[in-house]
Amino acid sequence: MKQPAILHLENITKQYEAVTCPAVAHVTLMLRQGELLGLLGPSGCGKTTLLRIVAGFERPDSGTVELAGRLVAGSGGWVPPEQRNTGMVFQDYALFPHLTVAENVAFGLKNRRSKNNRLFVKKSTAEAIALVGLSGLEKRYPHELSGGQQQRVALARALAPRPELILLDEPLSNLDVQVRLRLRQEVRSILKETGTSAIFVTHDREEALSISDRVGVMRSGRLEQLGTPEEIYAYPASRFVAEFVTQANFLPARRQGLHWETEVGSFEVSRSELGNQETGERGSWGAGESFPIPVHIQDKVLPEAGELMLREESVILKPDDNAPVVIQDRHFLGREYRYCLQTPSGKRLHARTTLSTQLPIGTRVRLSVATSSVQIFPAAIA
Question: Which residues contact 32 (CB under 8 A, 6 or more apart)?
Fold first, then answer.
């Protein structure tokens, strides 16, 4: 059974003065009760502006915002931020330095007129602090806490009023790597335990994929693709999404009949299967090896040129003195090696392998692909 929609954005656009491109352009999406949505994209792509529009800190130039079925922006309506029943967690925590942990968490509760009785505030504050694992630290001040603990306080403050939606603006970016890895899973668990819907803004692809139920990839104010983490990673809708979300190589390819020719091999593609995810055809790297090729072309017209996407983790390296590709460098990453490869034209490719593949720099290697992970994107003819 589908959960009801907690948020519905319809054709949201926001244009700032003296800026050519809109900060947000025609964004439409729906968030269901209990769902965690990650907004992913590079700096300046519009994800934080979109979050601020949902919160009520910015007014959209066009489009509508509905929260729990109530129109809060657009079509002549406007509801201020304090009346939207949303919680906000900022990148810099935004804690009051002169207030204790308990006082910071209780601050939002005391400002709610209908719920300002002391017993309710005390009980809700204690529950929120316990939920984020800070029981016993109620009397400490922010400067007496670690960065991770301060972020937990910010989360508890947002959760205490039991909002319909929590908005998190890159809340983990100021934390050390190990703290960030641990806290992002704790944040997900807390939100799931309480059944709280949330939008999580980040430019970290791993963070977005691990926390979110769905991911929205933004580019230049537009929503480039919206889907589950698995869908976004396995079937990127554009070259931009493929490059931003996956660790992949892109090889220029030209069509010769029904073959895609690259400098490291050729691939056979069937016209009749264009638009399907898998063609059932076989492709090879010129070494007698073959594998299925999923075709990802947005229109049905077979182009003269394109780019093949090869994920780093799917590339297999096999030493061959006659191969055209040379290992230029090797990096040890703990659980794997990352190889830098050079093609005959001087193009750099990368491959990630297990520790069992240990090849010296200067080795000539032939490439093959472990899985059906090759995708084709249209490209302009050079």
Answer: 2, 3, 4, 5, 6, 197
Q: Which long-range contacts (CB under 8 A, 24 or more apart) does 235-241 make?
A: 235/277, 235/296, 235/375, 236/296, 236/309, 236/375, 237/298, 238/298, 238/377, 239/307, 239/377, 239/379, 241/217
Beta-carbon count within 10 A of 307 CB: 19
- pLDDT per residue as tens digits for the range 136-157: 999 999 999 999 999 999 999 9
Tens-digit pLDDT profile for residues 316-367: 999 999 999 999 999 999 999 999 999 999 999 999 999 999 999 999 999 8
Full-model pTM? 0.84
- 92 touches 98 (CB < 8 A): no
- CA–CA distance, 35 with 67 (Å, rounded to integer): 14
Question: If you search the block for the tokens 């990802």, which residue do you land on?
Answer: 296
- Crossing angle of helices 118-131 and 101-110, in 10° steps, is 130
The arrangement of strands across the sheet holding 348-353 comes to 315-319, 364-369, 325-332, 337-342, 348-353
